[in-house]
Design goal:
By secondary structure, the chain is an alpha+beta fold. Helices cover about 25% and strands about 25% of the residues.
Length: about 170
């Protein structure tokens, strides 16, 4: 059975463009996965982190996969580790962060995985790339369109990054 998932890639340490493009290349090589679309790369301030924390680059991707949500999570965690992600703690800078935002219309609330991502509706830096890929996306818990959670201020805080964007985007 083929499942559709949306993943957010994020980086705020080191060569952020390189980490995003490396993660994308590694994701595309996961067996049983097909890359179906990517958003632009966006830049945003690090939210709820120490003053002076480097800004993030983020990009959403859409995939079709034969993997279960937990198998996909395991594959993404291996990529994070390969790209020098050392700590999964909140509010810490990272070379790469790979979050499953949506997985079909599944609702999962397990220790290792929560889908939809529990902070999705509070994060313009995740919502804006998602609705670029598919403006009709609906949140599985609220049944509201994701774009209805955004306002004009959100688009001022999250900017599309044009210059030096990774190749293939």
């Amino acid at each position: 059975m083929t499942n559709t998932a949306y993943i957010l890639l994020g980086s705020n340490l080191g060569d952020r463009n390189k980490y995003l493009s490396s993660a994308m290349a590694m994701i595309k090589k996961i067996p049983g996965l097909k890359h179906c679309g990517s958003s632009s790369v966006y830049s945003s301030k690090a939210e709820q982190m120490a003053c002076g924390t480097p800004s993030f680059l983020n990009q959403a991707i859409k995939i079709n996969t034969e993997l279960s949500s937990f198998e996909l999570l395991t594959a993404l965690e291996k990529i994070e580790k390969a790209l020098d992600r050392t700590d999964k703690g909140k509010q810490l800078s990272r070379t790469i962060d790979l979050d499953i935002l949506l997985y079909d219309t599944e609702i999962i609330n397990a220790e290792r995985l929560t889908i939809p991502h529990p902070e999705l509706l509070n994060r313009a830096f995740a919502l804006i790339p998602l609705i670029e890929i598919d403006p009709r996306l609906v949140h599985p818990l609220t049944n509201k369109r994701l774009k209805d959670y955004l306002n004009d201020e959100d688009f001022k805080l999250v900017r599309q990054k044009e210059e030096n964007a990774p190749a293939g985007y």
